[in-house]
Amino acid sequence: MIVFESQKIRRIVGRLERGEALQASLKRLAQEKGITASWLSALGAFEWVELMEYDQHAQKYKAPKRIEECEILHLTGNLSFRKGENFAHVHASVSKEVGDRIEVYGGHLVDAQVFACELMIECLDDVVLQREYDEATGLDLWKGDCLAAPESMVDEVEDRATNPPKKVAAPAAESLSWSQVAAVAQAAGNDSAAAAPRLEQMPKTGDYVQHKTFGLCRVEGRGVDGALIIRLHNDPRRRKISVDHVEFIGPKQDGDKRVFVLRKRG
């Protein structure tokens, strides 16, 4: 048995529009909300759904069965990572009226087109779940070493700007911890911002910050202590930055991205 405990939980409640593809919608939601591990449930109806069963002896899935215009009796699943990408694992049972009787179907959900769907996702923000091939079952299952506590998966960013020493011999040396700020501001053609930066607003989930070590990072949310949670490109791990001793220059629009630059507070 592999068991870890989560201490940081948030809940997302929403509704999918008619015609949305369930799997694509769940993956997009996981990316937008920075979901690293979660459990989900839903109810409603499908215009169609494809369900299939797993053959435990042959260790492969059987051909999917397509059911049209059906009610969701029960839908449950989880969101995690597989091969570095967001992955939704969903099971469902549905009912359909056939003549004078009600037929019930269930199994692994391949995909579905929504008629109406209300869902709730319980996110475990201090856990990152990743899948890998399991020889005993032939399935991609959660790795035992990836169910991690915050200390190993949400790393504290160690920087002299956020953890200043008690005695500072030369203030100029401190400024080197965010030296990239000036270069970024100059490249953007905004020398005045480099000379006199000001805090316009805090980055929100989905925005980007330019970090001196990690480069351009996506904002995944805020920690319970107010710290900024960021994620590197194509990296499921998250890192935490204290905002007590930094300020944010910007934002500057870069296509569809809002980008902030970090600077040590003067």
Give descriptors for this structure.
7-stranded mixed beta sheet; 266 residues; 13% helix; mainly beta
Strand proportion, as a percent range, falls in over 45%
**What is the arithmetic mean of pLDDT?**
79
In terms of structural class, how would the helical and strand content be classed?
mainly beta
Tell me, briefly, the overall form.
elongated
Q: Give start-end ranges of low-pLDDT stretches.
A: 147-200
What radius of gyration results from the CA coordinates? 23 Å
Please explain how this structure is put together.
The protein has 266 residues and is mainly beta. 13% of the residues lie in helices and 50% in strands. It contains 5 helices and 16 strands. The protein has helices spanning 22-33, 150-153, 171-175, 180-187, 191-195; strands at 9-16, 38-52, 54-55, 60-61, 65-82, 85-98, 101-124, 130-134, 139-142, 154-156, 208-211, 215-222, 228-231, 238-241, 246-254, 257-264. Strands 1, 2, 5, 6, 7, 8 and 9 form a 7-stranded mixed sheet that branches. Strands 10-14-13-12-11-16-15 form a 7-stranded mixed sheet. A hairpin with a 2-residue loop joins strand 5 (65-82) and strand 6 (85-98). The longest helix is centred in the first third of the chain and has 12 residues, at 22-33. The N and C termini lie far apart (51 Å). The model is unreliable at 147-200 (pLDDT under 50).
